[in-house]
Fold this sequence. Notes:
By secondary structure, this protein is mainly α. The chain has six helices and no strands. It is flat.
Amino acid sequence: MDKKTQKQQTESPDKGRTLSKPRIFIGLTFILFSGVLVFSFISYLMNWKADQSQAGTMLDKGIKSSNIFGKLGDWLGNLFIFESIGVASFIIAFLFMVIGTMILKKKIFKPWMTFGHSLFFICWLPVLFGAITKGQGVLSGVYGYQIMDSLNAIIGSVGLWTVLVSSIALYF
């Protein structure tokens, strides 16, 4: 009986420990920032045409923003969605949540597997959306459009779709 109790204690030493306040604060900050990113991105996608002209007017009090988080949400949406990787930015918000849960020592996700899958889709999705929309709109972002345009110029449209389909087939 004493060996069973001793074995259970050695298997899970973290079960009885409480987390430190800075660790809780940092973990919850990452999770909260993840939520801010998600809602900013959703609001930006719904209002991006109206807010596009306001991208550089962060400190101008006379201009109102239609984003749920105001000008900060506009700036985050413009930076992540329009100027970088498009809707794959939601994966970055998801990664902030994963990091927050890791800091809080919650075993919700397998971290290395999650990071690996996320990095693949951060690279693949913008190119896919760039190929689908031909660079029109914000789904692909600037990077997705530029990579799609370069691949299209080098290997053609059929080659681009061959690379996209074969890469996802090899991935799974």
